[in-house]
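Service request form, structural biology core

Requester: graduate student, group of Dr. S.
Request type: structure prediction, single chain
Budget code: on file
Notes: please return the result as structure tokens.

Sequence provided:
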Amino acid sequence: MQRTIRFDRRNETLIFGDTVRRYRDGGFTLHASELPSIRSTDFMAAMASYLDDWDDGTTEVYVVDGDYDEFDDEYSTPGPVTFVQHQGRASA
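Core staff response, request fulfilled:
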């Protein structure tokens, strides 16, 4: 079964569907409307793969809500949810 999200080590990006997201200012940013298409096990595997590349032990994924037409993964204000994976454990 194909993963719904993955981390591409060559380009240091998250890939899900036709979307490619780069790491920005301390984390990755997703829009809340994108989450239903991503399986949680795939999400955890992508974050673990990221952590394997960057051995600091922590990564964050910011979730932005609001109008998707105004969403920009680089400039939208993060919130209301942030996923944090620290040393293999995830929290929201």
